[in-house]
Amino acid sequence: MCRLLGLSAGREPISASFWLLDAPDSLEVQSRRNADGSGIGFFEPAGTPVLDKQPEAAFRDEEFTREAKQARSPVFVAHVRWASVGGRTVQNTHPFAMHGRIMAHNGGFGDVGRLAEQLGSYRQLVLGETDSEHYFALITQQIDAHGGDVGAGIAAAAGWIAARLPVSSLNTVVAAPGELWALRYPGQHALHIIERPAGMSAQAAPAARAADGGAAATSATSGPGLHVRSSTSSVHAPGLQALPSVVIASEELDGENGWRMLASGELVHVRPDLRVESAVVIPDPPAQLVPLPADNPNIDT
């Protein structure tokens, strides 16, 4: 079980630094109990995915802090990892990029080999060992099978896994330029959403951050067509409070009212105009539910 974040401001570039660094329960804070990797994904103005990720805890990674402060994009996906499948490598660190989209996953499932067989030629998209990246490849396969419909692809992929494999959680966030999708499934692990109108202030005071002198991470290569630590990070954009936004997260990151827990099987789609569409796409429980491990450091609320 890891922690994930999705942020959309629709068509307007925005900073995610409050949610990544300054909120009382920011991803940097969460990285102190999810210390196996951290990453930020966003999009260049031309729509190219940018991944900045390292197998290093966010609170120790100077590059995570730098990118969190500087990056501007209409859409972000971020993740802090508690490894359950696959070693601590860049390839196994979230988020992942495939076919111009970015994805992060919170949870786990078994029998990845059976899923790999289902992928066929899409198996070549998987660069690491994680169940999460295999899940994303299945989502990508199913998006193509459903004529480019991202929501239908996510639902079909999660439904395939739920019917055949042991499942802890398939909670996921998938992003494309200007758009964001999130699925909570099943109801065992939390995923929240908040819709923030322009001018909504972050009332809670920023969390204090302890520097521990961790060495700066080196730049990672992220596959064809991806640019790590992009020069576009310095582009100026309006601040968080000046623009409306939608945030999806494993935990309620700040003290604001308005957070809502997604229902089990609920898929939300945040459109470029920030309209949020929602439907329960997987009504039935998994065929084989795997309880949260006793040693997991995260408590879902």
Structure write-up:
There is one protein chain. With 301 residues, this protein is of the alpha+beta class. The chain contains 6 helices and 14 strands. It has a 7-stranded antiparallel β-sheet with strand order 3-2-4-1-10-9-11. Strands 5, 6, 7, 8, 12, 13 and 14 form a 7-stranded mixed β-sheet that branches. Helix 4 (112-119) packs parallel to helix 5. The protein is globular. The two termini are 14 Å apart. The relative contact order is 0.22.
SSE string, helices as H and strands as E? EHHEEHEEEHHHEEEEEEEE
- Counted by DSSP, the helix tally is 6
What oligomerization state is this entry in? Answer: single chain
Q: Low-confidence spans: pLDDT under 50, at least 5 residues?
A: 201-238
- Helix proportion range: 10-25%
Mean pLDDT over the full residue set: 77
What is the 3D form? globular
Round the Cα radius of gyration to an integer and report it.
17 Å
Tally the beta strands.
Answer: 14
N-to-C terminal Cα separation, in Å? 14 Å
SS-derived structural category? alpha+beta
Q: Tell me the strand order in the biggest sheet.
A: 3-2-4-1-10-9-11
Provide the β-strand percentage band: 25-35%
What does the main sheet amount to?
Answer: 7 strands, antiparallel
